[in-house]
Amino acid sequence: MSERRYRVIDARGIELAPCDAARAAKLLASGRASLVEGQEATIRLPYEVELLAPSGRRAGPEVAPGTPLLLHICCGPCATYPVPRLRELGFDVVGWWYNPNIQPEEEHGRREESARALAARERLPLAAGPYEPQAYEEAVRGHEARPERCRRCYRLRLEAAAREAQRRGINMFTTTLLISPYQDQAALRQIGDEVAAAHGLEFFFENLRRGWAERGRLARAYGLYLQQYCGCRFSLAERERAQRRVVVGQEG
After folding, report:
1. Does domain 67-214 have CATH number 3.40.50.12780?
2. In terms of pTM, does the model score above 0.90?
3. Burial 198-232 (b: 16+ CB within 10 A, else e)
């Protein structure tokens, strides 16, 4: 008897490769997909997936070959697609690791190690800022609920990226956070533009979410650590509460 397969569609209803029941259950339990009412064994992803043209190359903005770009890296998996994509556009990419939101410290170390593994694989120069969890706590104090907590976290990290770009004489920066469907892309773009203007720089924006599916495939192929929560202690607590609800629902 063949194993049951689930039909998978993206946010626009575009049909993607199907998955098995175990994979579908994992996506549903983690909130990374939802069941489609009225369609048997069908799940919907909360983001759009852009399918590659036969040439494998996507159109993009005109960039002078070799233009320096500082890329803030939030984790190794989220850099798998952006690094080659930005190079494809013509950028000379340098990486910057600064994520004081990640807790506990052991988790921060594990994610930085994953980012360094990806950088080594891609021959990407990668520098790291200090681990300053107290800076994150101060930034979000009194604003611990989403979405304001996340906006303040974005600003903290993008400010650090802008200062590092300015210190290096690099006029443009961006972030791998733009790949995630779980991050507020509009807020990232707005804050990035504001921070860039304050430092006399330019924030490069592209909808990197089109590479989200590729991110997962590459991260698994490269053996990178795949974290199970955004990073801060608040998101960890939210994930644990969601898991308990799933367990209670299954028991009921």
Report:
1. no
2. no
3. ebebbbbbbebbbbbbbbeebbeeeebeebebbbb
